[in-house]
Design brief:
It is a single chain. The protein is α/β, with parallel strands linked by helices. It has 2 domains: 129 residues, D-Maltodextrin-Binding Protein, domain 2 (3-Layer(aba) Sandwich), CATH 3.40.190; 83 residues, 3-Layer(aba) Sandwich (D-Maltodextrin-Binding Protein, domain 2). The protein has a 6-stranded mixed sheet with strand order 2-3-1-4-11-5. It is elongated, with a radius of gyration of 20 Å. The chain starts with a helix and ends with a helix. The structure holds adenosine-5'-triphosphate and 1-O-pyrophosphono-5-O-phosphono-alpha-D-ribofuranose.
Length: 218
């Protein structure tokens, strides 16, 4: 009996990912690697979707929950934006492949002409509270962080904050709301992440899948 079988590693491998942008941009890579979903999650209410590989299934979760599922072993693998991973902290997960999809930048933004070096104690609205806290602490700047769950660009327009921290791609959402990027925090792409224990227990199968996906990325 193989070591993988003796450790009870016979259930399906679970890959957590979110609907929308991540799913749409990840699928061509997985399909090139020979792993396709049996159903379209946009059309199904199912949260566990089988794949063309009998021992692999997709879990449909919120983007910000992917690292939590993988950290605690609810999923063996996951696809997640580096922004979400930075915010989570990455405990208990390996990050073996940069999928180079969903490219954007994590930025500080605000009204044109905002002087970040003034002594003012800025209010910063963001869903990336940990990233924002770390960034401003590294700069030695005192800020007040205001937690939001979306539509961050609205906050300066209604006086909730002077600054936001959010992902920026084309810049059109900022521009449409009279805001500009002020400071770069990090370049962002989506990453394939793996639960540390799964990687040990199911090393042969996971390594084989990683190799196929890495080849698809290249
Ligand atoms: P949640 O549902 O948990 O709030 P979300 O709405 O941020 O998550 P998506 O909009 O699908 O989820 O974004 C998923 C990932 O795609 C983000 O974590 C980020 O890495 C990347 N991303 C977000 N916005 C853009 C964008 N405009 N262009 C390119 N990539 C983006
Ligand atoms: C993200 C993000 C910004 C926007 C940035 O939101 O929160 O609002 O994209 O992209 P841009 O610089 O190209 O305007 P969301 O996921 O809602 O954006 P979407 O409209 O691209 O889905």
């Amino acid at each position: 009996m193989s070591s993988e079988a003796t450790t009870g590693a016979t259930r399906s491998l679970r890959i957590a990912l979110s609907k929308g942008r991540i799913f749409n941009e990840t699928m061509p890579l997985f399909e090139a690697a020979g792993i396709s979903p049996a159903e379209d999650p946009e059309k199904s209410r199912k949260l566990i979707i089988p794949s063309t590989e009998p021992d692999v299934e997709f879990l449909i979760v919120r983007a910000s929950d992917v690292p939590t599922y993988v950290q605690h072993g609810g999923a063996d693998l996951g696809v997640v934006g580096k922004d979400v991973l930075l915010e989570h902290g990455g405990d208990g997960v390996l990050e073996p492949i940069d999928l180079k999809i969903a490219q954007c930048k994590l930025m500080v933004a605000g009204f044109p002409g905002t002087d970040l070096n003034s002594n003012k104690r800025f209010r910063v609205a963001t869903k990336f509270t940990e990233c924002a806290r770390r960034h401003f602490a590294q700069q030695g700047r005192q800020v007040e962080i205001i937690k939001l769950y979306g539509s961050m660009e609205l906050a300066p327009l209604v006086g909730l904050s002077e600054l936001i921290v959010d992902v920026v791609d084309t810049g059109s959402t900022l521009a449409a709301n009279g805001l500009v990027p002020l400071e770069h925090i990090s370049d962002i792409t989506s990453r394939l992440i793996v639960n540390r224990a799964s990687m040990k227990i199911r090393h042969t199968r996971i390594s084989e899948i990683l190799a196929r996906i890495a080849k698809a990325v290249d």
